[in-house]
Amino acid sequence: MKKIKLYVGLIIVGGLLSACSTDKEKSYSFDKVENNTFEHLHGLGYINGGPELVISTHDGLYEYGKDGWREATSEKHDYMGFQAIREGFLSSGHPEPGTNYKHPLGLIKSTDQGASFDQLAFYGEIDFHYLAAGYDSNAIYVFNEMPTKEMGKGLHYSTDEGSTWNQLSMKGYNSELMSNLAAHPSRKDVIAIGSKDGLYLSENHGDNFNLLNDVKMVTYVTMTESGGLYASFENEVAKLRTFAIGSEEEIEIQLPTIQQIEPIAFIAVNPENQEEIAIATYNNDIYITKDNGLNWETIADSGGLVK
């Protein structure tokens, strides 16, 4: 197994089945925002099929919709490796201080917008930062940095919610710096990796990878049915492009005019409207477009929620 350095980005999954975790003493909903700033962003996406955009922060979940921002009233866990799926979301991370959950959370799944979660695997054992999940397939990929007796270091995938795992050889992947993993929404065998040395794609679960391009410093990639979107940071300029599986054609998406320097940390595409795209930067700026980049709205500025 080659040694791979990883930079701050994401984490994911494991294999030890546990029971459902709920704090029944607290009510849960998305309601009026009490804390309108966040320091650490761990992901964003359209959970439970949308239409609202949900972000995962160090202090729990926030939701952005037609009436602006709302904040989760409880279950304020530090969800690392946050992955939106049609059924809800998958994640890892650390429990909210003062709760009885074990640390770390291992691999968890919520189907009720975060009111409760199932402990799927490695509860109290592994904190997955590099995690990907198929939006409709629910195939789960993790790059494990915390080897245990049950899971060694490296890339693994599961198609049964973490009950069993397969380790991948990653032949053809030759970068030392990985930004994130991205799973195809419906094809369980397709996974992309963003890296310092370009965009990699596998169509056999990650046993073999092909270099789609040699763009330097891919900071994030997400997949759609036909291909996906990826962000890069070249010559101190952020770029956002689409790519297609089986084609060399790429299309650059216009970014907000004020977004010229900060690298893009996360990308999410509305599964019901491919022209709706949300991006977040390493400076905790969040922008959203509903017309494929022609017009952008700023919904967070340096970690401060807007509107």
Structure description:
- The protein has one domain: YVTN repeat-like/Quinoprotein amine dehydrogenase (Methylamine Dehydrogenase, Chain H, 7 Propeller), CATH 2.130.10.10.
- The N terminus is likely disordered.
- The radius of gyration is 18 Å and the shape is globular.
- The termini are far apart.
- By secondary structure, the protein is mainly β.
- A hairpin with a 7-residue loop joins strand 4 and strand 5.
Task: Write a short abstract of this structure.
This protein has one domain: 7 Propeller (Methylamine Dehydrogenase, Chain H). The protein is built from no helices and 28 strands. The protein has strands at 5-6, 20-21, 30-31, 41-45, 53-57, 60-65, 68-72, 78-85, 88-94, 107-110, 117-121, 130-133, 140-144, 154-158, 166-167, 177-183, 191-195, 198-202, 210-213, 218-223, 227-234, 237-244, 250-252, 264-270, 273-281, 286-289, 297-301, 304-305.
